[in-house]
Please model this.
Amino acid sequence: MTAPFLVLDFYTGDSLGVENTCALLAPQAVELLRATRDEMPAKATDFAGIVLSGSTASVAAAPAWLEPAGEFLRTAIERDVPVLGLCFGHQLLAEVACGRGTVVPASRPEVGWHEIAVGHAEQLLNGLGATCPAFLCHFDEVRPDTAGIQILARTPVSPVGALRVLGRRAFGVQFHPEMTVADARAAAASVELESGAQATGAGGPNGGDAGGREVGRVIFDNFVSLALTGE
Model:
């Protein structure tokens, strides 16, 4: 019997994209934990793979509830449990794998649909081509000079648009392949309300929806394949 996938939800409010994350992992069995309040599982190796959600929190701010999840993730990386980090999860993966100070403020926020430039179209990003549309909503980013990662893609602002932890089946994407158009609209509206940052790019928060859905399917199918077969 195949072990379930674990989805760690790091949102402190509405869990945008988490429901669709579970749907994109189907038909695999999925367990969902709210990382801000739930106890971490005893063993990372009990799972076929782990998906780290986005969040309205900041990895660099290191909220207290993040420490147990970070320790759990560190064990998962050491045991080569497959990991996929999404936005906040991408940054958390890099910070845990490579050390404090890996995540820094971005030169400017990215909110909206933008073209992602794919540098390594194999493994996680196989099938996406040289560019692909994706929804972005972030204020921090991974330092491009971080040792121990392979950069797989870049966004218009961030040089580390996607990464792999060297020697591990641990991947992160700065964008949100899991978000539906409704999720993207809600995320953009929330950011605009709280910070004043405006959604930009191809049609604002929902301009790349059709292509974005396909990107999400490709990435999650690739991740499940990597987790189950190692290829």
Observations:
- The longest helix spans residues 209-229.
- The radius of gyration is 16 Å.
